[in-house]
Amino acid sequence: MTDEKRETPIDRKLLELLVCPLTKGPLTYDQQRSELISKSAHLAYPVRDGIPIMLPSEGRAIED
């Protein structure tokens, strides 16, 4: 199936409650990549099947 990579969108109420585990700062949701972005930590946390994986070891380093 070609939609295997399609991820379930994250719940907006959940997004309001979540913070970066390293900086405790806000997160933004990148729907195209299915990631939660922490600009202060320069990390992108994956969202798999609608579940945010908030482990720093799972985060992808990003640049501003």
Automatic annotation (TrEMBL):
GO terms for cellular component: cytosol. SUPFAM superfamilies: Trm112p-like. Signal peptide: none annotated. InterPro entries: Trm112-like. Gene3D superfamilies: 2.20.25.10. HAMAP family: UPF0434. Belongs to the UPF0434 family. This is UPF0434 protein CU102_22620. It comes from Phyllobacterium brassicacearum.
